[in-house]
Write a structure and sequence with these properties.
395 residues; alpha/beta; 5-stranded mixed beta sheet; 4-stranded antiparallel beta sheet; 15 strands; 13% strand; globular
Length: 395
């Protein structure tokens, strides 16, 4: 058997499939015919090995309670070792959840109390803020700092000061960073880790985009040292990598016994036990057989990212493309247009006919930005960029 789904140019019609990306524009206040490049899923068929695993399960015809076994653990363990050189030493350290956002909410309830502050780095993936405030906690942000070369860095003095002044004991790290498309270096992550160890801060490291780092091999935060591992909850998933978000499976790795116990107790309180059967089958197939599909996909996405950068730089002098060091999500800076957030949104939605993610949803420091998803056939991306240029040319 060989990989079949290596054609990423063919446009697959996703409309009328209950697709969040394509079928819910009107319900979310957008024009019915809008071209969506917002939510972070891909317009590509997943690996044929995953399709085959799901077909086999469907043919069996029984979808009862399903649990993971040694083969599942070995598949996850093997992927973490081959892709990131990270050793998961015990199956006890692995906990399944139906998604990373679910895990973030569980972590908030596991490691903080009502009214407690939780530290983030804005602009950042907006569910970070949502699960903090929705669970009655308080957001504290050590905002990322823009660099001259079009990426972000962290102000470590501000980061530590925020921890001390607010008595922070819980921190959400986005590694790699979304929406800033930043790949953290070993030195940067080590500085973060040393500060958090020093002040007894539990770190929830969202590493869902780990397989899409372009400048370097992904560095798992917990792999930096035993001390850092002991304060870290590592959130991983095959869902972004293999375009299977709807199958709802994530692998949360916690090496510290006390942290793991508190997290598992919270899952019990939520009433969650076994994972989605389809997610289990898909994850195991992805991590055992999906390497060829992923490597081909990554080459295609990298080409799309470069195409986007060149197209915008050539045609829109007042729009800046941030360095896309990671993810398939490109961070576009529209502040040079002189338009307000509301004006930018209106031009994109009603003149360009595009649905992107407005930067303001990622925090106040995201105002003036837009996030565009480049994980689609080139023809769709080209049409979107042409619409964008038409709407903003001369602005």
């Amino acid at each position: 058997m060989s990989e079949r789904n290596l054609d990423f140019d063919t446009v697959i019609d996703r409309r009328h499939t209950k697709s969040l990306k394509y079928d819910f524009a009107v319900k979310r206040g957008k024009p019915a015919d809008i071209l969506p490049l917002w939510v972070a899923d891909m317009d590509f068929r997943t690996s044929s090995y995953i399709e085959d695993a799901l077909k086999k399960a469907a043919e069996h015809g029984i979808f009862g309670y399903t649990e993971t076994d040694d083969e599942y653990f070995e598949a996850v363990k093997g992927w973490m070792k081959s892709q990131y050189d990270w050793d998961i030493t015990s199956e006890r350290h692995l906990i399944k959840t139906p998604g990373i956002v679910f895990a973030l909410a569980a972590a908030v309830n596991s490691y903080s109390e009502k009214g407690d502050p939780v530290l983030i780095n804005s602009p950042v993936y907006y569910p970070f803020s949502e699960v903090i405030t929705d669970n009655g906690r308080r957001i504290v942000s050590s905002n990322l700092v823009e660099t001259e070369d079009g990426t972000y860095s962290l102000d470590y003095e501000d980061f530590e000061r925020k921890i001390v002044e607010n008595d922070i004991h819980l921190y959400f790290l986005c590694n790699p960073h979304n929406p800033g498309s930043k790949s953290w270096t070993r030195e940067e992550l080590t500085k973060i880790g040393e500060i958090c160890v020093k002040h007894n801060v539990t770190v929830i490291s969202d590493e869902i985009h780990a397989d899409f780092e372009w400048d370097r091999r992904h560095i798992v935060f917990a792999s930096l040292s035993p001390e850092i591992s002991a304060i870290t909850v590592t959130c991983t998933s095959p869902t972004k990598t293999f375009n299977i978000a709807g199958l709802q499976i994530s692998n949360i790795i916690i090496t510290d016994n006390k942290l793991r116990y508190r997290f598992k107790k919270q899952l019990d309180a939520f009433g969650y036990s076994q994972a989605n059967a389809a997610g289990i089958y898909a994850c195991e197939a992805a991590y055992r057989y999906g390497s060829e599909w992923l490597e081909t996909l990554k080459g295609y996405i990298q080409s799309n990212i470069e195409y986007t950068k060149n197209f915008i730089e050539k045609n829109l002098e007042n729009v800046r493309v941030f360095k896309t060091q990671a993810t398939y999500l490109i961070w576009l800076d529209f502040r040079g247009t002189g338009l307000s957030d509301e004006e930018i949104d209106k031009k994109i939605i009603y003149e360009a006919g595009l649905w992107l993610d407005s930067g303001s949803i990622f925090g106040d420091s995201g105002k003036g930005f837009q996030r565009i998803n480049a994980a689609c056939p080139r023809s769709i991306l080209q049409e979107a960029l042409e619409r964008l240029v038409k709407a903003f040319r001369g602005v």
